[in-house]
TrEMBL record:
Beta-D-galactose binds at residues 96-97, 194-196, 266. InterPro entries: Aldose_1-epimerase (IPR015443), Aldose_1/G6P_1-epimerase (IPR008183), Gal_mutarotase_sf_dom (IPR011013), Galactose_mutarotase-like (IPR047215), GH-type_carb-bd (IPR014718). One of its GO terms (biological process) is glucose metabolic process. Monomer. GO terms for molecular function: aldose 1-epimerase activity; carbohydrate binding. One of its GO terms (cellular component) is cytoplasm. This is Aldose 1-epimerase. Belongs to the aldose epimerase family. The active site is at residues 194, 333. Its EC number is 5.1.3.3. PANTHER family: ALDOSE-1-EPIMERASE (PTHR10091), GALACTOSE MUTAROTASE (PTHR10091:SF0). CDD domains: galactose_mutarotase_like.
């Protein structure tokens, strides 16, 4: 840490006035950028501001590298971005929406910020995406560990929550994202990763030609505020059927109330899984035909939110200097279901003292 002392002389009515005041100046820059790189040349860059993935560089079928994650080169741009798109961030304490910004737990009512119309979204006004995390590189496993303590009643949530996120890049071309958390008071926890992808390269047109498969027979329909209606509906015969790979744009313009509510896809799919509920299951596979880039996602979570970049409108300019156009990126957020604290028949998101919250998502990059 650099430190130096400066003498400060103020304005004086007499030139003979002496000055003995002292200012101590030291390095106050706690925000860092870390790069993970594997044997294949895949590169992932992460900052401890918001635990944000700022860049993912992967090769196309000809070996040409491109950055497939939307984002910025300066931390100021993340802080000051209009519409707060959550590019690349870890979001929580509760990712996705909680109806009316409120819930009741063990007989007590809790009020949260209503930062998405009448609802609470992604942890509130200052969620995990807008704080500085402690960071520890783990060179022996090509990983970065990030930790943060969310204090009791921070953004309205009960309990001191100690959260750890580890990003690990393997030589199998997998980015492993692991979460662990403990609390000293019962609290809802639903943490997810909010990277926007464009497998053509960030800023390179829309994602409508990407071919997507979602391993889900059902999804949770929403109301106009994008809050689940409380049921799981079959995808059969609807635009939400991605069990067989199809282009994202194939049915996105279909006249459908659910698509109208979301302005496109912005829904939670209920993943197919058998047996152990904590095991990794295939959640999604995406392929971009022009570049040949592909990505597969496995997770221990019960759901995945597919968001088709409906609110991108060209006002945001990313790392390449190109604008992020409407549907210029997609998100696949592994998660528990939205509004679970108010929907007791959904899988529980309540973490209690003495319990350990654990969640893992694996993204594998490849070409075909």
């Amino acid at each position: 840490m650099s430190m130096r002392s400066l003498l400060l002389c103020g304005m004086s009515v007499s030139a003979a006035t002496s000055c003995h005041a002292q200012i101590v100046e030291e390095d106050f820059d706690s925000i860092r950028l870390f790069t993970l790189r594997n044997a294949s040349g895949i590169e992932v860059r992460i900052t401890n501001y918001g635990a944000i993935i700022t860049s993912i560089r992967t090769p196309d079928r000809d070996g040409e590298l491109a950055d497939i994650a939307l984002g910025y080169t300066r931390v100021e741009d993340y802080i000051n971005a209009v519409d707060k798109p959550y590019f690349g961030a870890v979001v929580g304490r509760y990712g996705n929406r909680i109806a009316g910004g409120q819930f009741t737990l063990d007989g007590e009512s809790y009020e949260l910020a209503r930062n998405n119309g009448e609802n609470h979204l992604h942890g509130g006004v200052i969620g995990f995406d807008k704080v500085v995390w402690a960071a520890e590189p783990l060179p022996e496993s090509n990983a970065l560990r990030l930790t943060y303590r969310a204090k009791d009643l921070e953004e309205g949530y009960p309990g001191n929550l100690d959260l750890e996120v580890v990003y690990r890049l393997t030589d199998k071309d997998e980015l492993v994202v692991s979460y662990r958390a403990t609390t000293d008071k019962a609290t809802p926890v639903n943490v997810t990763q909010h990277t926007y992808f464009n497998l053509r390269g960030e800023g390179d047109g829309t994602i409508l030609g990407h071919e997507l498969m979602l391993n889900a027979d059902g999804y949770t329909p929403v109301d106009e505020g994008l809050i689940p209606q409380g049921k799981i509906a079959p995808v059969t015969g609807t635009p939400f059927d991605f069990r067989t790979s199809k282009s994202i744009g194939k049915d996105i313009g279909t006249e459908n109330e659910q698509l109208q509510f979301g302005g496109g896809y912005d829904h939670n799919w209920v993943l197919n899984r058998e047996g152990d509920t904590a095991s990794l299951v295939l959640a999604a596979r995406v392929y971009e035909p022009e570049s040949g880039r592909a990505m597969e996602i496995r997770t221990t979570e019960p759901g995945i939110q597919f968001y088709s970049g409906n609110f991108l409108d060209g006002r945001l300019f990313g790392k390449s200097g190109k604008s992020y156009v409407h549907r210029g990126g997609f998100c696949l957020e592994t998660q528990h279901f939205p509004d679970s604290p108010n929907q007791p028949h959904f899988p529980s998101t309540i973490l209690r003292p003495g319990e350990l919250y654990e969640s893992t998502t694996v993204l594998r990059f490849f070409t075909q």
